[in-house]
Amino acid sequence: MNRIDLIFYVFIAAFAAAASLVLVFMPQSADFALKPVFWILLAMAAFEGVNFAINRGAPGTMISPLSRVLGLIGAFAVINLVVWFAGLNVSLL
Prior knowledge:
Layout: H1 3-25, H2 36-55, H3 65-85
Helix pairs in contact: 1-2, 1-3, 2-3
């Protein structure tokens, strides 16, 4: 695992925690035009874009496909756990 994958994991975990707090304190935000699932995908795309722009797509500086999948699954898990522990019934889709 390279360094950018670890940075990506930290970023996506922080974003998922922030998104879950938004859902806990403002449950009506789950009914916004963009569902929470797209919040995660947009954050991942933004990270990819910034990473690509900084490193100009050099070999070894891009996020691995496995890390993308694990980050997405991890973000869903974090959001679902926080919302569940808060006792809310909020749909991410």
